[in-house]
From TrEMBL:
Domain USP: 41-339
Coiled-coil boundaries: none
Top-level taxon in the UniProt lineage: Eukaryota
Organism expressing this protein natively: Rotaria sordida
GO MF annotation terms: cysteine-type deubiquitinase activity
Top-tier EC class: hydrolase
One annotated GO biological process: protein deubiquitination
Transmembrane segment boundaries: none
Protein name, entry field: ubiquitinyl hydrolase 1
EC numbers for this chain: 3.4.19.12
InterPro entries linked to this entry: Papain-like_cys_pep_sf, Peptidase_C19_UCH, Ub_carboxyl-term_hydrolase, USP, USP_CS
PROSITE patterns referenced in this protein's UniProt entry, alphabetically: USP_1, USP_2, USP_3
Catalytic activity: Thiol-dependent hydrolysis of ester, thioester, amide, peptide and isopeptide bonds formed by the C-terminal Gly of ubiquitin (a 76-residue protein attached to proteins as an intracellular targeting signal)
Amino acid sequence: MENGWIKFETALDDLTLAEMEFDQYSMISFETEDDLIPGLCGLTNLGNTCFMNSALQCLSNIPELTRKILSFGNEINAPIIGAYSTLIKTMWSGEHVVTIPSSLLLNISENLPRFRRYRQQDAQEFMNYFLHLIHQELTSERTLITDLFYGRIQSSVKCLGGCHSIETNEEVISFLPLPVANDIDEYNILYLQSNDFFREEPLNGDYYCSKCLDLKTARQKADLVLPLPPVLIIQLKRFTYDLDSSAKIDTYIDFPLRDLDLGQYIIQNNDEKTNVSTLYDLVAVSNHTGSLVAGHYITYARNDRNKKWYSFNDETIREIIDEHDIVTKNAYILVYIQRTTL
């Protein structure tokens, strides 16, 4: 350990995935016993796999998810959960400063061949697919994934053309996608992005009312439905795509490390509202630096053992001394934990 950095270097050019798997439990000693902190374990980049490493470090630092994964025994008949459980046990053993997630990647790529190609991928897409695969392997309708991550949004449309009827529709979400304005000169805060998502919008003649049997003016609104998810994952939609081009939006968004309050976005007149904690605290951020063509992912995460923040850049880990450094224009995925679950 030097200047707050933990670093492990190895040559990967001549290693096969099988050799990486064999070597992944190589123990790296810290200089002193005090340095042995569970959870401070880097992940080797297997070739453009920083997207996976960043997503895994975010998930690793969700306390309740890690506790549940660590409770699974070796006899579990689920290859992805088994590989992930082994990885998490290594990362939180306090005996390793780096490990190689090759076994997990092999099992994931058998279900999702796109991840075999060792090219840049989207960290949010990987995280979403990965959580879905865990949910599938647990084989029941309700799992630790649904219990921790799933929330509901109700969309309502009110006809303003005469009947004033309201049509509602509920959608289950595991990520909250928030728009990011392409305006680097403006000061933006997360609440403004949330307000844009949940605000009431006019539908001027674009809404077909099933009661009026005609196109009518209407108003559309989205609201959160209780219960709120214990883990809230926010995706800041920085990437835009069309037929001719793609681009990244580098707008700085100021987001809170503590006390994110979702109370104003919960559907009104809900009897449960007064008895629910609507406050969330940040535990991890996946950051995307560079461009769409040449980008890199780094995670900032709060260690649950010592409550300190660290930067996870593949194999390299450093402590973040100033919490102001956590909020940057590169923030892409924000992981919040409901206050009652901390």
